[in-house]
Structure formats: C-alpha cells, structure tokens
Amino acid sequence: MEKNVSSVDFSMETLPVRQSSAVSIGRIKPELYKQKSVDSEEGNKEPVETCGKLSFALSYDYEEQALVVRILKALDLPAKDFTGTSDPYVKIYLLPERKKKFQTRVHRKNLNPVFDELFLFPVEYEQLCNRKLHFSVYDFDRFTSHDMIGEVVVDNLFELSDLSREAVVWKDILVSTTESVDLGEIMYSLCYLPTAGRMTLTVIKCRNLKAMDITGSSDPYVKVSLICDGRRLKKRKTTTKKSTLNPVYNEAIIFDIPPENVEQVSLSIMVMDYDRVGHNEVIGVCRTGPDAEGLGRDHWNEMLAYPRKPITHWHSLCEWPGRASSFESQGSCPSPKPPQTP
Ligand SMILES: [Ca+2]
Ligand SMILES: [Ca+2]
Questions:
Q1: Distance 147 CA to ligand 1 centre (A)
Q2: pLDDT bucket at 61, cuts 50 / 70 / 90
Q3: Ligand 1 centroid to 92 CA: how many Å?
Q4: Domain boundary among 141, 175, 209
Q5: Which ligand ends up closest to the CA of 213?
C-alpha cells in the first residue's frame, strides 16, 4: 500500500517507454564517463582475485544423454574459520537451469579436499553450447550461514575438449562472497531529464533468476523504491510474469525528481516472487544512486552525465539484507529547497 508520508512530492507515474527529450542541465561532464556496451558481461565486474584451484573432469554420456561432471579436488583454499581452516563443499549448476543443483559432501577442516564425486546433468548434446557450468565453493558453518569462498564458471563447455572422452580441467577459483550468480541478474535503463526533473527507470528484463517455488520456477515482478536519506518515500512495481526465470518487462517507472534533489536520492530495486498463498518473497536486490557501490553508482553517474539518453546495464542481484534494513522504514525527506520558479 502507498503511504504518502513525504513532505516532498516526488510524484511518480507509470508510462510507456517512449518519452520526449528536454534541454541539458550541462554541469556534468560526459567525457568523465565511458560508455559501456549493453550486454557486456565483464562491464560490471572489477578485476577478480583468485583463491585456490578447482579440478574437475567433463565428458558427455550419449546413452544417458547427460553431461557428466566429476568434481575431483580443490587446492590451496583460503581459511574462512577462526581456527585457520575451512570446511569446503562445492555446489554445481548447469545454467540457465537452476532446478537441478548438486553439491558435494562437506570436507571438515581441509584446505585441499579430494571430492571425487560424479554428477549427471541430463541435457541434449546440441544444447550444450547454450549452457554454462557453474561451481560455487562454500565453507560449511554449523551455526551461521555458510561462507562463499569463490566460484568457477565454464562458459564454453567445448573449450577444452569435444567431451567424447573424460577431460580433466584445472581452473582458478575466483574470489566471490556474494551469491550474485545464484540470484540472477536484472537489466534496466536509467534516463534523466533535468529540465523536466524527471527520472525514468525502465525495467527491461531479468535472466537466470533463482527459483523460489517448488515447481522450480518463480513468478517475478520488480519493485522500485525511491529512497531519500535512508528512507523509502514511494514505491512502484511492474506487472508479474508467471512461472519464468527469464522475464521480459519493458516497463517504465517515472519519478519526478527536481535537479536540486537529485543528489539526495537513490533507487532500491527488488526482484520479488509473487505467491498466490502466503507472503511474496525477495529474490534479490540492487541499488543505484550516488551512495551505491560499484556499478550501482557508476550507472547513476552515467545517467547524469548523459541527460536525456537512456543508459542500460545488467546488474547482478544481491542477497536482501533483511527486514531490519532501512528500506522498509517510512519517513520524510529532510526539507529540500522548494522548486525554483523560472
Ligand atoms: Ca566453517
Ligand atoms: Ca511464486
């Protein structure tokens, strides 16, 4: 439900994607911000550190029509526990499908575990070129949530062999502490019209969302909140797409934000799973604004640097920090200046 608690009227409406342009504000220097390609997978990732190596063997079983993955061992894993060791196990997906997920046994207090476990992913040989093998290495913890150590993604399954016989592969484990890949990604564009004081966030699509329902799918919709000073002023949502992990929306959400307020606000984007019975659940979140981190901040700055131009990026979804977060609190924005009369 909408609560009008703000003293500032940052009014919003949902409109079709097309819109007219306005005059540039001209105080932000576009040359400071590089344009990145829309579909860039690398664009949102900073150079990654590695933490040990993972070895596995791949082959294709024509009779079973399945990709055979044997997880062999890991070497030189980092210590995640205060005892100076870790309790590693490996979780494995054949993306984009998430329904079928395997994991190895946990190896207690071992930084060089020998797994030697075999997993079969039913998949047609012709389909293998569209699939991605994703390994996440975790440290098991008895009383707290398990720490993610890192991940290995194999984009091209034919990179190393034709899979007609077992091929052993060693890959560096890339440091990663969030399950970004596990929650999926969202593509949206941001566009700001300074003279009109109008910001448009267009939710374009999502991919590889986490399955939240027992059917192995989700019913995703996207909720966008305008945040000011840690408080949620207003929220809007897209339509719900039933039973898909790769929804396409192309829905624009408009916020009226005068140029003098643009430094004070940010947007929280939550991908939700609709449930007919019970509470809707958060699949993942991301944030954009001057106080966001990484791509969330860069995307915002790029929007301001290129007024009237929709800027589009893929964003990895992060774990929702939980209800305690300030997202859910209500309040008003600290007295911004009244709109100037021309
Ligand atoms: Ca542990
Ligand atoms: Ca659902």
A1: 8
A2: very high
A3: 19
A4: 175
A5: 2
